[in-house]
Amino acid sequence: MEFRRFGKTDMEVSVLGFGGAEIGFESAPQDAVERLLNPALDAGLNVIDTGECYANSEELIGRSVSHRRDDFFLFTKCGHSSGFPEPDWDLGMLLKQIDRSLSRLNTDHLDLLQLHGCSEQLLRDGGVIDVLRRAREAGKTRYIGYSGDDSPARYAVDSGAFDSLQTSCNIADQQSIDLTLPKAASSGMGVIAKRPIANVAWRNGEPPDAYGHTYWERLGKLGYRFLEGEKAVETALRFTLAQTGICTAIVGTKNPERWLSNAAFAEAGPLPVEQVQAIRSRWKEVAGRDWVGQG
Questions:
Q1: Of 104, 106, 103, 81, whose CA–CA distance to 94 is shortest?
Q2: What's CA 177's distance to the chain center, in Å?
Q3: What pLDDT, on the 0 to 100 scale, is given for residue 211?
Q4: In the chain, which residues have pLDDT < 50?
Q5: pLDDT at residue number 277
Q6: How many CB atoms lie within 10 A of CB 250?
Q7: What confidence score (pLDDT) does residue 208 get?
Q8: Could you say which of 64, 164, 187, 231 would form a disulfide bridge with 34 (CB–CB 3.0 to 4.6 Å)?
Q9: Whole-model pTM above 0.90?
Q10: Measured in whole angstroms, how far is the alpha carbon of residue 275 from the centre of its chain?
C-alpha cells in the first residue's frame, strides 16, 4: 500500500482509506464489519473516516477495531444533530456531539475532527470553527478539518483555519480539481477525496437512488468509453488518485473482497497523464456551470 504525507500533519496515510457511511446506512452486521476492517488493517489500511449522522457507523467501528487504535488514524465529522434535540450546528450540541462520538468510537481522542458540510455563512460567523479549536485544545482531536464542496469548501481553504479538506473528486465530479485542490495543496492541507469512484453510478441501467442520480446523469452525457470495459473502477479510482494534493481516497463498502480489489487498483498507482488529460478534456467539453461538487 502506498502512503502519502497528510499535508503538514505528522500523519502518513494510506492512499486508500475506508469510508464508514455505507456500513451505517445499510445496517451492516457487527461481525461483517469486523471481518472487513481487521483484514484491511492487516493489509495496510490506516485511515478510517466516519461521521455523526451515518446511523450506527461510529459504534460499529468502535466495537470492531478500537482495540487496535494505534494501527490507524481515526477521522469523524460533526454538525448534524442526529438524535439531539437541538438543531444542526447549535454550538452547545456540537460540544455534546463530539463527546458522544468519542464514546461511540471507544477512544479518548480523534486524529481528525471535521465540520460536516456547513454553509459558508456559518464558517464566516466563526462559532463552529471555535468549537473545533476548543476540542483540539482539550486533546479531543489532534487536527481539525472541513468536509464539503463548492464555495463553502473554497472559503474553508482560504480561511487558513483548517488542517484538512475532505471534498468530492471523481470522474463525474471535477469542480474541486480547479476550485480547491491547488490552493489546499499549496497551503499544506491534507486532502481526502470522498466519493472517489463516483458511487459506481455507471453500472445502473436506470437512475439509481437520489444519492447517485446526479452522477448517473452526468456520466450519461460524458460518455466515457472506458466505463464499458473491465477496468472501469480501476480507471476511475486511479484518476482520482492522480489529482494534485489528494492524500487519501475513502471508499465505503460492506464487502471485504471489494476493499481488497480496490486496494489492488490503488497499488497500480495514479492514472497515466495522457489518460487523465483525456478525461479532463471531455469534462471541460461537456460540464455545465451547474455541475458543482456533490456532498
A1: 81
A2: 15
A3: 73
A4: none
A5: 98
A6: 21
A7: 65
A8: 64
A9: yes
A10: 24
pLDDT for position 260? 86
Residue type, 155: Y
Nine-digit cell at 58? Answer: 461510529
Q: Which residues pair with 146 in a beta bridge?
A: 115, 165
> Cβ atoms within 10 A of the Cβ of 113, count?
28
Q: Are 104 and 59 in contact (CB under 8 A)?
A: yes
Q: Supply the pLDDT for residue 257.
A: 83
CATH annotation of 3-286? 3.20.20.100
Q: Give the CA distances from residue 138 to residues 91, 135, 162, 254, in Å, rounded to whole numbers and listed in that order.
A: 16, 5, 17, 34
Q: Which three cell numbers stand for residue 82?
A: 442526529
**Furthest-apart CA pair in the chain: how many Å?**
52
- Cβ atoms < 10 Å from Cβ of 66: 13
In 3D, which of 190, 136, 194, 183 has the Cα closest to residue 165? Answer: 190
- Among all chains, which residue has been given the C-alpha cell 464487502? 255
pLDDT of the residue at 203: 85
